[in-house]
Description:
The protein is mostly helical. The chain has one domain (2-212). It contains six helices and no strands. It starts with a helix and ends with a helix.
Amino acid sequence: xxxxxxxxxxxxxxxxxxxxxxxxxxxxxxxxxxxxxxxxxxxxxxxxxxxxxxxxxxxxxxxxxxxxxxxxxxxxxxxxxxxxxxxxxxxxxxxxxxxxxxxxxxxxxxxxxxxxxxxxxxxxxxxxxxxxxxxxxxxxxxxxxxxxxxxxxxxxxxxxxxxxxxxxxxxxxxxxxxxxxxxxxxxxxxxxxxxxxxxxxxxxxxxxxxxxx
Length: 213
């Protein structure tokens, strides 16, 4: 029976790995098609790199919390949560207490888990704002090359058009990078959220089972 249950012990973390492997494969396919070439130009690359660093921080933070949640779910299913885990702290809080103690303990548990999850959501939202900052910078670059007084000169018009195209490229690509990475991170956030909900339910159920025993 133990052998059958082992492949499902880290199902939550395996979902995290699968989602990100698929996302990496799609990103690699886009690079092979040349769809990412516009990002690797001055200004656009620097802004995109800044957005990507924030995304990586959020992704690894989310992965670490998904792993911790997955481990704690395994401990609860074994019926013996380790000392220092959320389950152990919850059991110590509500053990021997009345209904009020259980209610307060469950509320505190939900609050802590909600805070743990919301950090990833805030980082994902930050990617959108960073993309919009890149959009504003791109428009500033585009408009900086416009000179109405030189609009009648052919050479000046060519330079203005080149600057305008460059600025619009920065605006569009940084917006795209922020939006795509937001979707990527928010999918991982949903995995963490589902794991947190499962963990809260499992901890409360374990507490009830201990009380009945």
